[in-house]
Specification:
single chain, 3 helices, 79% helix
C-alpha cells in the first residue's frame, strides 16, 4: 500500500509539471488569470491525494490488525 501512495503522489507531481493533461491545463488557466479555476485544480489535486492516503492508511491498518493501536 505504501508503494501505491508514493505512486499517486508521483503521478500528481508529474501531471502537475506537464507530463499529462493536468499541467498544460493548469498553466493555461494561470496565464489567463482564471484564479478560481487554478484554486479548484489545486484543491482537487491535494484533496484527491489526501483521500487516497487516508483510505490506504485505513486499509493497511485493518490488514495489519492495528485498528485501535493509534487511539
Amino acid at each position: 500500500m505504501k508503494r501505491y501512495e508514493s505512486t499517486v503522489r508521483g503521478a500528481a507531481v508529474m501531471g502537475f509539471v506537464g507530463a499529462a493533461s493536468i499541467g498544460p491545463d493548469f498553466f493555461e488557466t494561470v496565464r489567463k488569470f482564471y484564479y478560481t479555476d487554478v484554486s479548484a485544480i489545486l484543491l482537487l489535486i491535494v484533496g484527491t491525494v489526501m483521500l487516497i492516503d487516508f483510505i490506504t492508511e485505513r486499509v493497511r491498518h485493518r490488514l495489519l490488525g492495528l485498528e485501535g493501536a493509534g487511539k
